[in-house]
Amino acid sequence: MARIREDLVGSVLVTHPGATDPIVLVAGSKVPEGIEVGAHVLEPEHRGSGSTGSNTPPQSSPDAAAKAAAKAAKKVADKAAKKAGKPEPTPTPPPAAADPTAVTPPPLNGAGSGKEAWREYATVATKAAGLSIEIPEDATRTDIVDALKSAGVRTE
Questions:
Q1: At the N or C end, where does the chain have fewer CB atoms within 10 A?
Q2: Are 77 and 22 in contact (CB under 8 A)?
Q3: Sign of CA dihedral 103, 104, 105, 110
Q4: pTM for the model
């Protein structure tokens, strides 16, 4: 089974055919059967099995990553709303006073660096940045930090 490369900084958000919730893959994750990812995110020995695309990583900016994360989150929310029979949510701009740089991330090591501190920070910082990112219950501190980095949210 293919694995996401160990040196990957960030996360890969994929959807499984027939599933409503996205799957977040991070460094070392096994790629589930039926999921195709670009070869550039796979361990070298797994390239060519269960992957698509070239070995050249796409060029992206933090701004593009944040927009992609917000677009994926909106798509998931819209799909869930349709499934529940509710009208699609109307996006609301973040309040003018909400400055994402005013929110200080917890330390990466030592006291106060646990996954709950990072989960709380992720909720506040992404909301202040106008993003909507769901963190799975079983996500580790590293998973949360990587997802925030991928979305262009400050982690240091």
A1: C
A2: no
A3: negative
A4: 0.38
